[in-house]
Design goal:
8% of the residues lie in helices and 51% in strands. Strands 1-2-3-6-5-4 form a 6-stranded antiparallel barrel. Strand 4 and strand 5 form a beta hairpin. It is globular and about 50 Å long. The N and C termini lie far apart (32 Å). The longest helix has 9 residues. It is mostly beta strands. The chain contains 1 helix and 6 strands. The protein has one domain: Bacteriophage SPP1 head-tail adaptor protein (Thrombin, subunit H).
């Protein structure tokens, strides 16, 4: 697995400011990743549920802490789902630590 790209995982939380207003706080973590295309079957199956997967980022599962947003090359994406894939043909020891993040371009 060649992790030669970088994404910024974004954890969103809210805290109260001095005036009692809820303020959005973003915790950003840069991680290395591999970029893959969404498979045709995943794209069409997701479309049935009105989801629009566009891109898949493969990260080390120990780097991911449930973040639901990320930035890739200046574009914000929402994580639709994360999953640990089954071993494919000729799995390597590094495949054990793979986690795929299926994403769509964020609307916000």
């Amino acid at each position: 697995m060649m992790m030669d790209n970088e994404i910024t995982l974004i954890q969103i939380t809210y805290k109260e400011n001095d005036m009692g207003d809820k303020v959005k706080v973003e915790k950003k973590t840069d991680v290395l990743c591999e970029v893959e295309s969404v498979t045709r079957s995943e794209f069409y199956n997701a479309a049935k549920l009105d989801l629009q997967p566009e891109i898949v980022f493969v990260v080390n599962r120990y780097d991911y802490e449930g973040q639901m947003e990320l930035d890739y090359e200046g574009v914000r994406h929402d994580v639709i789902r994360s999953f640990k894939p089954n071993h494919r043909h000729n799995p390597t020891p590094m495949d054990i630590d793979r986690l795929e993040l299926v994403c769509k371009r964020a609307d916000h």
